[in-house]
UniProtKB/TrEMBL annotation:
Organism: Aquisphaera giovannonii
Name of the molecule in the record: Acetyl-coenzyme A synthetase
Name of the gene this protein is made from: acsA_2
Keyword Hydrolase: no
Biological role stated in the UniProt entry: Catalyzes the conversion of acetate into acetyl-CoA (AcCoA), an essential intermediate at the junction of anabolic and catabolic pathways. AcsA undergoes a two-step reaction. In the first half reaction, AcsA combines acetate with ATP to form acetyl-adenylate (AcAMP) intermediate. In the second half reaction, it can then transfer the acetyl group from AcAMP to the sulfhydryl group of CoA, forming the product AcCoA.
HAMAP family: Ac_CoA_synth
AMP-binding enzyme C-terminal domain sequence ranges: 540-618
Length: 657
């Protein structure tokens, strides 16, 4: 583990003193409405976690059978609500159809070409039950994994909930990933069925999802069926026997499919995310605890009420979409806006038009989008009536105070609290965040841990650091929505999260806590990059680069980027017989896109004749980070095997510059 002070990434010099107390009117009506109430809840949960979580579980989720035991903690393996029977699809759909909400809009959807659909809870129930029967008809049984590789259309939500209905864990693969990346995930979880579409729209173009799915299916022997939703009308290749049109299968499917009661610990989904190795890991979430965590945080952090129109802009391919577009808000019977496309297509006003058109009250988006909006200018939001908004959320990376202030002022009109929510794929739900009616907010800080969550900032040996000192962010107690393991690899789960600081969950993030008890997240301290809110490992991009015949060695580091937070810089040595050229640089970029997806395209590729290494052969990324960022290396180079490498790299940079 690197030291928290040797990494520039977590040496915070931020001195932010602006404080925004919750607006009185907001606080009066909020679920948690004062700092005292928050503190009481937090203390209560700390003193009696099982009592606290049992109360939340009973209040928020419908169980077919109650649990025998709240928590079985056999570190680092947790079982929550053991013995209980539950179903996520029942909680997100059916139970809302039993009362006055059956005609309430569950999903308000807008496609990129401007097509619109509204699915009421009753519609969602019918669609989910039908598709669950389709899956059953293809032989999917409880426990079988189903891969979903779809655009942002309602069918993605329908398919996920249909899987949950029959106890088939889903693995959603973001539509921006390549055929190779999709194949790797299908192979790892041995999915039997893949659900995709002919294509999806993005910035006026059609993303050829079926073509990628075909590429993946060709190398995935476990895959028996591919279900294809017709979205764009694009011509697609067809494998008879394997491929089926969604609409044809659905035409013959019954709309009655009782939700299958599953054990609270039954797998709900596997979501792949980047760690510090070349291979993404399958984060496993189970049913009962995950539902409790996402429903509770949706209620408290987003303060959702029955009449809200809530919009989480994230793609369901990421954990934010899972927890805060699908499971959390639908468990609470909320009305969710869902959109297909991009923030700047057909123009830079897309978000603001959606907010105006649907009278969105709560917006949850990412700092990278906010920084892009700032760059595009205030004229776009100013053209629209944003007065329906009452709460703003941010997620995915640290939000710089300038972006926070812009969001608060220009989008929120100065009246909407901003909740900066810190969490991870692994944590399943929000961990550190203001509660908008209770917590005074400070631009750039995620503020305080939610009730039931006990984080701490510590040194390498687990000792708590002092006020305002940087250290490693850990979580000390298990929580219901925590990952249960890395799919198929308990040892890696233990080693990755629970061995650096024994007995605690290590997040991979650096942080400090200020004199008011507010947490400031300072970014990753491992080899994980955060590029425009997308998580990538340096090793993953390196593996993609070295799989090209011209590349001998590659080292990838992040460099600061005003818009994306981090950009990708690659240092590459070439096999003999290959020479550096602009053409090769382009080819390598395209190669990475093919191996992983456009989100991993390197911004800079530096050709070099050697990489700076320690005597034991480890690449000194710290030095490369400095070169990529164009700053002088202040750090120690005494362990460098060959000092002249640095001199040559710098000289090369000057020439290139
Ligand atoms: O470094 C933290 C950053 O995103 C990482 C988790 O990425 P992922 O699993 O893809 O989940 C993103 C959506 C929850 C964290 O380790 N991160 C996430 N939210 C914040 C953040 N960094 C600072 N502030 C945040 N609010």
């Amino acid at each position: 583990m690197p030291s928290p002070t040797s990494s520039g990434a977590i040496t915070s010099v931020l001195q932010e003193t602006r404080v925004f107390p919750p607006p009185a009117e907001f606080a009066r009506a909020a679920h948690v409405s004062s700092l005292e109430q928050y503190q009481e809840l937090w203390n209560r949960a700390k003193d009696d976690p099982e009592g606290f979580w049992a109360e939340q579980a009973g209040r928020l989720i419908s169980w077919f059978k109650p649990w025998d035991r709240v928590l079985d903690w056999n570190p680092p393996f947790a079982k929550w609500f053991e013995g209980a029977l539950v179903n996520a699809s029942y909680n997100c759909v059916d139970r809302h159809c039993e009362g006055p909400n059956k005609n309430k809009a569950a999903l308000i959807w807008e496609g990129e070409p401007g097509d619109r659909r509204v699915l009421r809870y009753q519609d969602l129930q019918r669609e989910v039950a039908r598709f669950a029967n389709v899956l059953k008809g293809l032989g999917v049984r409880k426990g079988d994994v189903v891969a979903l590789y779809l655009p942002m259309i309602p069918e993605l939500v329908v398919a996920a909930l249909a899987c949950a209905r029959i106890g088939a864990p889903h693995t959603v693969v973001f539509g921006g990933f390549s055929a190779e990346a999709l194949a790797g995930r299908i192979q790892d979880c041995k999915a039997k069925v893949l659900v995709t579409a002919d294509g999806g729209y993005r910035r006026g173009k059609v993303v050829p999802l079926k073509e990628n799915a075909d590429g993946a299916a060709a190398v995935c022997p476990t895959l028996q069926h591919v279900v294809v939703y017709r979205r764009t009308g694009l011509d697609v290749a067809w494998s008879h026997g394997r491929d089926h049109w969604w609409h044809e299968l659905e035409a013959n499917a019954s709309a009655v499919c009782p939700p299958e009661p599953v054990d609270s610990e039954h797998p709900l989904f596997i979501l792949y995310t980047s760690g510090s190795t070349g291979k993404p890991k399958g984060i496993l979430h189970t049913t009962g605890g995950y539902l409790v965590g996402t429903a509770l945080t949706t209620q408290w952090v987003f303060d959702i009420k029955d009449d809200d129109t809530y919009w989480c802009t994230a793609d369901v391919g990421w954990v934010t979409g899972h927890s805060y577009l699908v499971y959390g808000p639908l468990a609470l019977g909320a009305t969710c806006v869902m959109f297909e496309g991009a923030p700047n297509w057909p123009d830079e006003g897309r978000f603001w038009k959606i907010i105006e058109d649907y009278r969105v009250t709560i917006l949850y988006t990412a700092p990278t989008a906010i920084r892009a909006f700032m760059k595009w200018g205030e004229q776009f939001p100013r053209r629209h009536d944003l007065s329906s908004l009452r709460l703003l959320g941010s997620v995915g990376e640290p939000i710089n105070p300038e972006a926070w202030m812009w969001y608060h002022k220009v989008i929120g009109g100065g009246r909407c609290p901003v909740v900066d929510t810190w969490w991870q794929t692994e944590t399943g739900a929000i961990m550190i965040s203001p509660l908008p009616g209770a917590t005074p907010t400070v631009p750039g800080s995620a503020t305080r841990p939610l009730p039931g969550i006990v984080p701490e900032v510590v040194t390498k040996d687990g000792t708590p650091v002092g006020v305002n000192e940087g250290g490693f962010l850990i979580v000390k107690q298990p929580w219901p929505s925590m990952l249960r393991t890395i799919y198929g690899d308990d040892d890696r789960y233990k080693a990755q999260y629970w061995s650096d600081i024994p007995g605690s969950y290590f997040t991979g993030d650096g942080a400090r806590r200020d004199e008011n008890g507010n947490f400031w997240i300072m970014g990753r301290v491992d080899d994980v990059l955060n590029v425009a809110g997308h998580r990538l490992s340096t090793m993953e991009v390196e593996s993609a680069l070295v799989s090209h015949r011209a590349v001998a060695e590659a080292a990838v580091v992040g460099k600061p980027d005003d818009l994306k937070g981090q950009a990708i810089a690659a240092f590459v040595t070439l096999e003999s017989g290959y020479a550096a050229s602009e053409e090769l640089r382009k080819e390598l970029r395209n190669h990475v896109v093919k191996e992983i997806g456009a989100l991993a395209r390197p911004d800079d590729i530096h050709f070099t004749d050697a990489l700076p290494k320690t005597r034991s052969g480890k690449i000194m990324r710290r030095l490369l980070r400095d070169i990529a960022a164009g700053v002088e290396s202040g750090g120690d180079t005494s362990t460098l095997e060959d000092l002249s490498v640095m001199v040559r790299l710098r000289r090369f940079e000057q020439k290139a510059g």
